[in-house]
Each structure stands twice: as C-alpha cells, then as structure tokens.
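From the shared-data thread, chain only:
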Amino acid sequence: MNSPRNAATTVLVVDDQEMLTLLMRKTLENNGFRVLWANSGRDALTLCRGAEPPVDLLVTDYRMPGMTGVELARECCRLNAGLSVLYISGSSLGDDLRADLAVGNRAFLAKPFRQSDLLRSVKAILDMEPASAPARENHGSRLERMSVGR
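Structure, as tokens:
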C-alpha cells in the first residue's frame, strides 16, 4: 500500500489509549502516510488547526474522555470541509455516531482490529468520492455499507 499518494496524505490519529495510538501511527507511517497523533480530542483539535498541509483523514476513537470522537470530527470538519473520518471503537455505536456516519466520508472500524484491517479501511475511505459516498462500517475485515437505522 506504500505509494506516492500515501506520502501526500496526512492522517491525524487520536485515541486515549497511548499504546494503540502508537501502533496505528507506526502502521500508517510504515505504509508511507504522513501521521500526526494525539491522545485527547483537545490536543487533536489543536493539531488539526495548525496542520500544514491540512489533515486529509481523521482516525479517532469514538469514546474518549473530555471530547468524544464525534465532537472532535465535527470541529475538525468545520476547519476542513473535505476531511474524511474513520471512527474506531470497542463499544457499541451510539445514536450520535450513527447520525454522523450518514454524512460525508465517514466509516467505522470495530476494535480490536488487525493492522491489515486498519490499512484496508484507510484505503477504502480515501477512495470514496468526496462527501457523496455513503458511510461504511468495518467489523474485522468485512467492509460494508451502513444504514442509519442499523
């Protein structure tokens, strides 16, 4: 998956579990992506505001203390309307996440996941048509369309 396109793609990785953030960061960097990372929504928002070039993809935990992944994504999308979002979580989907998945380039990857699942999900969301494709949900290695009522 390491390609010139990857090197031109900036990914912001956010999870309150520091070890998971490190593993995702290393996986993406080893596949040629430019990676920024944070362990809180507030720190991630600061990075998103100052990112040059701008962030292309936000990979964020859905449930974090302080600022949820949905709140973070909404704030980051105000800064960058073309931002794609990949939510990750080991818990069930809340109504706020279901509603957010129905908008623009959004997808969901269930924890725990393999490095190959992360890379496949990142590639799938980056290959989506900007802001027009339906959101997707990935449980393990199965990527499928997600409807809001699910």
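The beta strands are 10-14, 34-38, 57-61, 84-89, 106-110, 136-139, 142-145.
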